[in-house]
Design goal:
With about 290 residues, this protein is of the alpha+beta class. The protein contains ten helices and four strands; from the N terminus they run H-H-H-H-H-H-H-H-E-H-E-E-H-E.
């Protein structure tokens, strides 16, 4: 069962999501995909409340997926679906702005922020994830393909019933919301991972230790053409330290080969502390997924 802190986090997240929907997207006949987006379309077609439709679409689907496949954290998902439905029912559907671009951006921002908070505390609001699980089970589609296909279907329905313009704005809201969820999940404190292939690996390591105080991981690799074994250095640094790493490598070996990539989140010594969330059914001895 979810803890009180997780329930409060889910309540806050679903409230923010509901604000984005009720104050920006729904009054302007837009949505950000998913089963909630389908509920918005049905709301205008059938005249039923969005909150009731979200609950009616999610709960039977959640129970079906649980029975057929098995879904971990059923209680967490049920709590999230119930809270989101309740907020959508209780909050008035009132347009803060009728400027479609502003409504799209603010609606996607709030919706994504709320969902990001829900995911951050280990919660879920069901939605397209449930459909994607069924599609993976019966049609052998990947989760990514199932999620993308379901969202595309909902956006297409929006375009059919409300016009291509609102359909395109809904697609923008979906994109904004997805990016915001990623930012909240991964954080804004991006780091840089540097791979160094050089004959002067020992000298580079020593300079990194002394001048940056960073650890260096030595990976064993073999050149595909030369078939010569040589170490590859992996160094994770902040963005401001990248130039220092370049300078160190340049002075040690001008012919070195560097690969620099963005790392969205780094957990462990010297960076952010790793905080594990223990969940039922995912202990060390049993990590079976549906």
């Amino acid at each position: 069962m979810p803890k009180l802190r997780d329930i409060l986090g889910t309540a806050l997240g679903t409230l923010i999501t509901a604000c984005g929907l009720n104050f920006f997207l729904i009054p302007n006949r837009m949505n950000d995909g998913g089963l909630t987006g389908l509920a918005v379309v049905l709301h205008y077609v059938l005249g039923w409340p969005v909150g009731a439709l979200v609950f009616a679409l999610n709960v039977p689907l959640l129970l079906a997926v649980t029975y057929i496949i098995g879904v971990p954290f059923l209680a967490r998902t049920l709590v999230g679906v119930t809270l989101l439905s309740a907020w959508l029912w209780l909050l008035p559907s009132h347009a803060v702005t009728h400027d479609l671009l502003l409504a799209t951006l603010y609606g996607g921002l709030l919706s994504g922020t709320g969902l990001g908070i829900v995911f951050r505390v280990g919660g879920s609001t069901g939605g397209t994830d449930l459909v994607a699980r069924l599609l993976r089970h019966f049609a052998n589609l990947s989760m990514g393909s199932g999620l993308l296909g379901t969202d595309f279907f909902v956006i297409a329905l929006t375009a059919v019933f409300f016009g291509l313009r609102l359909g395109m704005y809904s697609a923008v809201a979906l994109f904004v919301g997805t990016r915001v969820v990623d930012l909240i999940q991964e954080g804004l404190d991006f780091r840089k991972a540097v791979l160094v292939i050089s004959e002067a690996g020992d000298a580079i390591k020593q300079q990194v230790f002394e001048h940056l105080g960073r650890g260096v991981t030595e990976l064993q690799a073999r050149g595909g053409y030369t078939q010569v074994d040589r170490p590859v250095l992996l160094i994770v640094v902040s963005r401001s330290e990248v130039q220092e790493v370049k300078d160190i490598v340049y002075h040690a070996d001008k012919d070195a080969f560097l690969i620099i990539s963005t790392v969205h989140e780094v957990l462990g010594e010297g960076f952010k502390e790793l905080e594990a969330r223990r969940r039922p059914g995912l202990g060390r001895a049993n990590r079976q997924l549906p």
